[in-house]
């Protein structure tokens, strides 16, 4: 295989092959994620794309490049789907709540859907670059945020800085293990010399003293900061291990959200000015194909092609296409008439979606920065709020919107079942336990409950291991002339990368089927 | 004590008292770090300030507000001292190397001196805000950078992603400790119930499986990334613990630089456009007091006031002042005539300064981002380079400058003793072991060896515990009419915060002495 064909193939495969390329030291001369399919004889054929989220618009964008005629039907009067930023004037209703309108100050926003881009989601990064969407760091890791446990332990109902818990736990665990290794209480399987190196590592990792004990450590911050002259800084004693435990700070409420996970490791990015800038940039490229306010009511495979019935302000319409790409979230698709196979139908009806919600709270002062030196990052709590996200933009400016909660599952269901006013009240009341500045500084709120958003009806697909073998697989093949795409057709559920990867995958499949060009990737050519 | 007087006192004390204020829930109505000294009868008195670094300029800025007449003598033809960004046209000589000029592209720069602002350095943040210097996140933590050990182990002479070492070590250590706790091989002093919670914590912390064993984990990245369709992602096996050890990846070369330290924990910031923007903003405020190109040769305490002798292009001059604030780095001051006390004189001559150097390498392509998905952060190596810093600005743009090395002590001495060309050659040769793109993409270099920079002669003061009791204390009191300031008069050596804190401290001391206002902080007043 020539270098060029290797690269072309890798690009077509998406991000997955990239580490392999690096391993082979095949550093690309062309942009890493150029999608170089060659136009074929399918040009002019009509592809109906359902949903103008990132997956649908990306598929339309790529297929249009290849000469296909695309129509995107989007039920909402906006594009982007879950890639949605709430700003002044944003108006939306929920299934059980009437429309609300956001009254945030100009320039302020929050991302109701995806808010973070991992650096290794290369297709997301690629499209931001290709579409000219500027990125900025999303500061996901911040040791100065809080753990706040409602409960009965001595550290409960207090805000404890993340750095205190992190370093105390590392310290105590390293001390315990160092003792066990030192006294040969645990079999490391190492030589004495290597065990000594592990001991030195534990001392460094845990911030232990010369006797390998964990005592006061600057890593967990100061009672009184060091400064000029005689101000050497005053350290506090670590929290007691039993206090950390009995206050619930080791509970899954806190440790299931570890920033160790691959997707949440720094470096992370966000689109400057709101994640919806990605959707808006795509929208510009596919404007000619786009029909907003067009709600699909039926999808019918025909002997040749596909028929889609949709309604808009003018009435009900039929649209005929050669092929269809359906990116509708499964709970939405479940309410659409179709003649799909039993396997596909079951997948549509039975794959569960996460319940999740966010509230944006605008404050007239960035007290979390001014008073508490919290710049970005996440405070974790075991109450309904689950997480408070501090904004990673406009640091040190006057006003700001923070995410008053970002919760999931049972907690999100409970909060989602409230009215907007009740959600706001809950966010303010529980938030004030952590930030007493809330009552005096609060200005505006806007909440989103994804399971109640028409045309979404959930956060993202939640596959169990069994579902991946059954329902998931059913959606990977086309049902006759209908292809499925969207985050739910990937192993990157919940991420924008899932939309992009699925769009590429479905584009390649559609093109391969409609084009007479049997060899998509030329294997000849100069290198 | 009234709330207002508490706040005024806290502000004067600097950042140290701030956590206490928070603890007392005294959230300030006024800006946290307003420096509200009241003008006194000292107005118009003449303060001679030696050095136009951040400490000297900040002292002049604050004293001028109080009505003093300041003269800043600065030997260099620029302000900022070690707060220095290298950009196109920057020209400078070293003590043993003739002048070099930087030929970087416009808009590209690197910070030769301080490059990071911890979020808890509140005075630094305060002055950036007050002076209108925009800040942006300095992305100090990046799990996608490398560990590169020159050596003989199986992981030597290879680039290993930081996330692999971090997660493998957390995994192995958690597994070992979980085993010891589970089998009661180590005395935790905990109840069974609490020990079970620790076991669950270890499972979460180490990414252990259900049997509390560390196996393949997505936290350490994928061999093949997950994607659309059947691409579930392929995990690699962890590195073997013995391989990590024998390859030197637990050596202090790697673990002394832990990002766990309080000063290097995220969130970190940098001044947008170069750290010298802070110096330039201060320079504007003190321009009327500033004499550049004025090299001090003698400082003489007089029965009344102080006499400073300096030379400039026009010749030698005498300047008389009521008081003097000397911010010259000690190795520089050591070459100036003075009539200080024996204690002060010894401190000036004997406090060691760190040897440290950086090289900025401009590349025509940001290959570390495009090919290797490294956005900011630091690669660590045990060779002379010590660290490679990737830029935290202009992500995804065309060109970039990375720090080819940032080293200290013996390694910095060795590299500093080379010519500019030899340093460049070393940086390129060693750097190419990690980034084979170096030879084809390299364009320009500029290196700085701080111990060879005239008027600096070192990186920062390196006090041992004993020095803090003797030499350090000698510099905290004025020597008759001469006060000392700069990072070397603080417990924040090496940080810009040291300059700011010392400037405030010396301003308060000078003002207290010259003003007839015995109570600086009014204890009456409305709250």
> Largest interface, with Cβ-Cβ < 8 Å?
A-B, 112 and 112 residues
CATH class of the largest domain in chain A: Alpha Beta
E-strand count of chain A: 25
Calculate Rg of chain A over CA atoms.
Answer: 26 Å
Instruction: Report the mean per-residue pLDDT of chain A as an integer.
Output: 92
> Strands across the major sheet of chain A, in which order?
14-2-1-18-25
The largest sheet of chain A, given as strand count, sense and whether it forms a barrel, is: 5 strands, parallel
Multimerization status:
homodimer
Our measurement of the CA-to-CA distance between the termini of chain A, rounded to an integer number of angstroms, reads 11 Å
Count helical runs of chain A: 18
Report the helical percentage of chain A.
25-40%
CATH architecture classification name of the largest domain in chain A: Alpha-Beta Complex
Q: Tell the overall outline of chain A.
A: globular
Strand content of chain A: 15-25%
Identify low-pLDDT runs of chain A: 1-30, 517-527
CATH third-level topology of the largest domain in chain A: Polyamine Oxidase, Chain A, domain 2
Protein structure class of chain A: alpha/beta
Number of spatially distinct domains of chain A: 3
GO molecular function (chains A, B): L-amino-acid oxidase activity; tryptophan 2-monooxygenase activity
Organism (chains A, B): Hymenobacter ginkgonis
Signal peptide (chains A, B): 1-34
InterPro entries (chains A, B): Amino_oxidase, FAD/NAD-bd_sf, Flavin_monoamine_oxidase, TAT_signal
